[in-house]
Amino acid sequence: FNLPSYSPDYNPIEKLWKKIKEKEIHLHYFPTFDSLKNKVEKALLHFKDMKNEVLSLFGFYKNQTEI
Question: Which residue has the higher pLDDT, 25 or 65?
Answer without folding.
Answer: 25
